[in-house]
UniProtKB/TrEMBL annotation:
Organism: Sporofaciens musculi
Stretches that traverse the bilayer: 12-31
PANTHER family listed in its UniProt record: EPIMERASE-RELATED (PTHR43574)
Protein name: NAD-dependent epimerase/dehydratase family protein
Record Gene3D superfamilies: NAD(P)-binding Rossmann-like Domain (3.40.50.720), UDP-galactose 4-epimerase, domain 1 (3.90.25.10)
Pfam families referenced in this protein's UniProt entry, alphabetically: GDP_Man_Dehyd
NAD(P)-binding domain sequence ranges: 14-346
Keywords, in A-Z order: Membrane, NAD, Transmembrane, Transmembrane helix
């Protein structure tokens, strides 16, 4: 297991996408785990989905119990705005950067490509440039850059489980292509400017206060409204669903261990974070409706069979995602472990209270 070489106590940490699902949960956990921590949260609060949910998450962060001198500072702005990003780095001089801000969604990237290039490519480039210049004039600068990649980079790879050693040169969506570009950019900047960087390929993250465009959340909204849900590829999809608490725990473990130089002398690493247990989509929706009934989101006599429709595969989708997390476990002594039923139960109970 890798030794911890980044002490987060007393650190200034920049978290982009702080009003997002993962960013907000990470901020809350960091504020409770570490002393004298300062989190600079950046988000553009765009309307890709309901902004009120993002504002709800920010309020949850602000209510989190913090140490006497720990604080959360929110700055609204876009990563694509280089002046804004440079000002953030100049004013706060973050020592650890976690870049989670990105335009998400595979299908949305097919109809709205511009926003993906702006946020995921130009935005990430601006972060890398700011990290590079954090070392100017002999300053200590950024100790560790952690950034979000995605299981989407594996595209239509046939070999499973997906390993970070696999070739990932055949993305099936623009979203996946932008995430692969992030890994390439990070490697180049790590090589050229010695920025310690770690990329995390997330596998289907879910849980309370998650993204409404994700299947479990969208299905729930439709079922509550007595609408029909469409199950793609006739239910013959498998997803490595990863509960939000496991994702956050993994990020925190990674943040504290910046990568050592590899055989090429580059401080660069990429890991999978997934549950290592793909679930069939039909089983997933069956468990979801059972937990929604148990949480009294749906009535006990709800006729689920009448509200589902099996349809073909959507462009950009893949049949299976399956994470090989052996390296994550070896380097950090950690692997996701929350069962799908336990995770969906937490979501169903949150949904009931949130909609009340």
């Amino acid at each position: 297991m890798l030794n911890k070489n980044v002490d987060l106590n007393g650190k200034t940490i920049l978290i982009t996408g702080a009003a997002g699902f993962i960013g907000a949960n990470l901020s809350r956990v960091l504020l409770t785990m570490f002393e004298d921590i300062k989190i600079i949260g950046v988000d553009n609060l765009n309307d890709y989905y309901d902004v009120s949910l993002k504002e709800y998450r920010l309020e949850q962060i602000r209510q989190e119990k913090k140490g006497a001198s720990s604080e959360f500072i929110f700055q609204k702005g876009s990563l694509a705005d280089k002046v804004f990003i440079d000002q953030i780095f100049s004013e706060y001089q973050p020592e650890v950067v976690v870049n989670l801000a990105a335009q998400a969604g595979v299908r949305y990237s097919i109809t709205n490509p511009d926003v993906y290039l702006e946020s995921n490519v130009i935005g990430f480039y601006n972060i890398l440039e700011a990290c590079r210049h954090s070392y100017d004039d002999g300053k200590k600068g950024v100790e560790h850059l952690v950034y979000a990649s995605s299981s989407s980079v594996y595209g239509s790879n046939k070999k499973i489980p997906y390993s970070t050693e696999d070739k990932v040169d055949n993305p099936v969506s623009l979203y996946a292509a932008t995430k692969k570009s992030n890994e390439l950019f990070a490697h180049a900047y790590s090589k050229l400017y010695d920025i310690p960087s770690t990329g995390l390929r997330f596998f289907t993250v879910y849980g309370p206060a998650g993204r409404p465009d994700m299947a479990y959340f969208g299905f729930t909204d439709k079922l509550v409204k007595n609408e029909t849900i469409k199950i793609f590829n006739y239910g013959n999809c498998k997803r490595d669903f990863t509960y939000i608490d496991d994702i956050v725990k993994g990020i925190v473990e990674v943040m504290q261990r910046s990568p050592l130089s590899n055989e090429d002398g580059v401080r660069y690493k990429v890991y999978n974070i997934g549950n290592n247990k793909p679930e069939n989509l039909l089983d997933f929706v069956e468990i979801l409706q059972e937990e929604l009934k148990a949480a009294k989101v749906l009535p006990q006599d709800y006729d689920f069979e009448q509200h589902k429709e099996l349809v073909g595969m959507q462009p950009g989708d893949v049949e299976v995602t399956y994470a090989d997390v052996e390296e994550l476990e070896k380097d950090f002594g950690f692997k996701p472990s929350t069962s799908l039923r336990d995770g969906l139960r937490q979501f169903a109970q949150w949904y009931r209270n949130y909609q009340a």
